Task: structure prediction
Amino acid sequence: MEEPKKDDFVGRHLIVDASTYTRRNLTSTDTVFALFEALNRNLDMTAVLPPIVCRYPFANDEIASFCDDIEVELAAKARELGATARKPVDLSLAPVRVMREFLRRRQMEESGVTGVSIWAESHAAIHTWDEDNYYAFDAFSCRDFRPRDALRLLLTHFDIETLNCVNLFRYQRSIPRVSHFQVNANWEVIVDGRTVGDLDTVDFRDICGAAPAAEVSMPADGAGASAPRRVRRGEPTAGSPAARGKKPNPRPRR
Result:
């Protein structure tokens, strides 16, 4: 019986801390939904459900429903007491009125967004903090993917100042392999403080490596080459290369 390999590849995990120089789209559930649909297509992932997106504070509706229940019960009790006392009885509560006003103001405010896309191959997630011009993103898949395809979408959906990126190869029986790099507003890739190229020309295999244990090959970063990937969970083998969008002109920092 063949012994399991010590470097058994489980998947690629791309982790991103992003700073932005505007709040544009950080509070937009529509933008986050569109981002995940684009990720599903361009990374060729199998969506189990449509993207799940909400804007904080998501508990507003639950608190409002609780206030409704209290007011219904108080109104019923007031009618009961009024029938006995033969005069109107006011059982309204000031805290409920204060909470209603608070909820009304919060609904008018912009706030951060949480989104998740569940894949048969694993998941992608994002959490935004609009007050800090920041969001956290990660994509994990047992089907290998090109980091630049995910990063290009992040750059085009938000006003990026810097993407701080961690590329992590997950393993079953050994310490994961980790690499770090940055992408700036000019779409330049920076490793150890040194610019190594821009997003569309740099060879990411030199930075992030290629997935080991080649059972099926997929298009790789670098002209005419292929990066191996391991197929998991009965996934389809047909890949769809991501469409390359035109790189926008760098925006000035504000």
Notes: Helices lie at 29-42, 60-85, 94-108, 147-157, 204-208.
